[in-house]
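User: I'm new to structure prediction. If I give you an amino acid sequence, what do you actually give back? Let's try with this one:
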Amino acid sequence: MTLAIYNTFTRRKETFEPIKPGEVKMYVCGITSYDECHLGHARAAIVFDIVYRYLKYLGYEVSYVRNFTDVDDKIIKKANDAKTSCEAIAEKYIVSYSEAMAQLGVQSPTIEPRASQHIAEMLHLIDSLEKKGFAYVAGTDVVYPVRQFPGYGKLSHKKIDELESGARVDVDEKKKDPLDFVLWKGSKPEEPKWPSRWGEGRPGWHIECSAMSMKYLGESFDIHGGGRDLIFPHHENEIAQSEAVTGVSFVRYWIHNGFVNIDQEKMSKSLGNIRTIPEILKKWSPESVRLFLLSTHYRSPLNFTETSLSEAEEAVRRGYETLLRLKKHPEGETALPEPHLLSHFSKYMDDDFNSAQFIGTLFNKIRHLNSWLDKTPDVEAESRTDFFEQLKKIGSILGIFDKDPEQYLQAKKESRVSTLGLSPQEIEKKILARQEARSQKDWKAADVIRQELAQKGVELKDNPDGTTSWSVRATPQ
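Assistant: Good question. You get back a string of structure tokens that encode the predicted 3D arrangement of the chain. For your 477 residues, that looks like this:
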């Protein structure tokens, strides 16, 4: 099976064929650096992280550009409110974002350009637009005439006559048309500004991405990505600007990830339900966050609840416990059943990066593997090694199950047990008391001890050899 990608532009899955065989050029819209990054940012970053990793796994040489918008109205407002510079605000949140992405295991793109460092490229692009009749001066601003571009609306599938001014489209009486958007904003007091032949000012939001993407990837490239909220007007305007200058198709495949909702409500500051990554990582592990975000197809809405992330945490633990169990199972001549993880992985990932379908299949296999181990006295060394190597390869792409299971579980146990109000020694003492009760056939007393530990989040497992092991769940009963 060859890779098929759902293209927002055509609204269908298409066989992936890069412009230059063996090479992929990809641009993804990054954050506006004015606040802490949240789950929505994490979803976009992790979605395109696995796109990036999987393309490399398929053998492509990938040039991946993800920008930072560090010139923006929101940054200016934040800086003025804090009585500091825009540069200080932008730097603070770029650093915070980069640290959060590193914690989540997101690989760094090939290039991470900042808008403020590419003003010359933006001015050159605006100048080219004006010379071709696709820009006009409106007061101190330079504006793009939307109706002059014949293909406007072809990405969002909106008819220009039905569009109304709104969303993130500026309303300005100096414009010839309310739908026209600003390429260059004339300077105002307390705002960053740069010299230009139209006077001092700063770039509009849309021109930033056109200028940076074309500088590093050329006039036409393979993949452009971002959240669904960017389809219109941002990505629509990028197409209009870029193609008006070059006369060639700007992007071959457009990929957009779905929104994150919180308890079935849109995540927004007005509702006070923003979940930042630093806040999330205080309670849940990076792997559980990745697993949660990848367990829903990237194009679908994703609903966050505390329960869903705790379930992801538990799933990660069960996966590592299964790996440890397999690792320690006696060696013999019995081969593992259905060991072909990579073929399943490729089948689903080739179908529009369907990590969600694969993860469901993976955990079904983990459940069946545990049942099989319960009934199987030994495992062939070669098939066990093959299983581990396949899972390690998959983990290197999804960013899960890529650690040593024993070390992971021990670290997780030590981290969680410190919050229980019980020491490991006290837990072991209760296990011994339960074993004594069972030896006396006092099943009621044994069940009481199990339940007491379960209420504190300690899960007991009675092993075939008569021993009892314990672990700590993400949340108590």
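You can read the tokens as a compact description of the fold. Here is one thing that stands out. The chain is about 45% helix and 15% strand.
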